[in-house]
Amino acid sequence: MKRTREDDHNQNEYMNAGKKQNPGQHHPYSSNQILDPNKTRWIFLNTKDIWINEIFPYCCIDDLFQWRSVSRQWSRWCPDAITFIDLYYDHQKITNQSISLLTNLTSINLELNNTIMDDSISSLTNLISINLNENNKITDNAILSLTKLRCIDLCCNLLITNQSISLLTNLTLINLDTNNKITDDGISLLTNLTSIDLCGNKRITDDGISSLTKLTSISLYFNKKKITDGGISLLTNLTYIDLGYSEKITDLSISLLTNLTHLDLDRNDMISDDALSSLTKLRSIRLQENNRITDQSLSLLINLTEIFLDDNRKITDHSVSLLTKLTYMELNHNKKITNQSVSLLTNLTKIDLIGYEKIEDLSLSLLTKLTHIRTFYSNID
After folding, report:
1. How far apart are CA 54 and CA 173, in angstroms?
2. Residues 146, 118 contacting (CB under 8 angstroms)
3. Which of 48, 256, 281, 380 counts the highest number of beta carbons within 10 A?
4. How many H-runs (helices) and E-runs (strands) does the chain carry?
5. Which one, of 92, 110, 98, 178, lies nearest residue 146 by Cα?
6. Looking at 46-194, which runs of residues are DSSP E strands?
7. CATH number given to 84-282
8. Superfamily for the 291-381 domain
9. Range in 73-87, 207-221, 234-248, 262-276 with the lowest mean pLDDT
10. Contact 312, 333 (CB under 8 A)
């Protein structure tokens, strides 16, 4: 199950690792620094570092490939300057031969790409991040040579197996969202993992995660069967856990995760007030359509800076009024929270009120730190 919610933890780390290109960003050199206005010719900038580090990174990928024909030097320097490339879906202008030349690449996105093949990827031994989300071309043969990988996205991937994954012991982040190929044998040796996404995953069990004691982030959204209290209770370094729609994790294990700072309980009916009483480090909590958590436990979480109460029917002004450190709040379609509590949250900088009709201008006028108000079809102008 591929998550599309805007607030996913972030797991944006997948393709940010090693990313350098930023087409369209302001060029560090003005035109008159590169072009001599008096002689109308290029000033001789023959220093490789200047071109690779200060000029090429601000150019788009297609241009860099075309500029290789300018000179012998540029034919060598242009590939050296490319450290990140996004080939989402199919990028017809970039060939397998061209990709194989980019030996300095550290990050590549091949999501839904059916053009790039194993031979071109296996030569990119400096890769530290690769996205193979729904990729139907790259196999274990290519991955086996990428021993420096730290981040890999295998969401909905049907080709990569335990054969290659089990050898990537430098991995710190892996996405196995709706992945049915990788099993416990594949990840149990990845003891350097700090983040894993098992959203909708039906293959990984407690046996697979029990050795991953360095984990600080785990997503079990819609993971209804395989991961239980037995496995989670061992992951005491967790700071983030997503239990949206989760049906196997209970208070027994969550109450032990005292390092948690982010907790997602959207539509979760298993976790109760009892578990939250020990989670004093929490800074962010999601309670969308949650029917178990009440004011009793929320009123104790006075260090919260983010709260998501979309469509929540349990939480009232009584507890929210005490959360004075909040800087971000979502009340989309919420029918419980009123002016009484919101007007007291003077540290708020962002608030979402889509479909919400209880907040009046008077309340918002007191929130002088607000920089973002999203209202859509609520009654705030």
Report:
1. 30
2. no
3. 256
4. 18, 16
5. 110
6. 84-86, 107-109, 129-131, 151-153, 173-175
7. 3.80.10.10
8. Ribonuclease Inhibitor (3.80.10.10)
9. 73-87
10. no
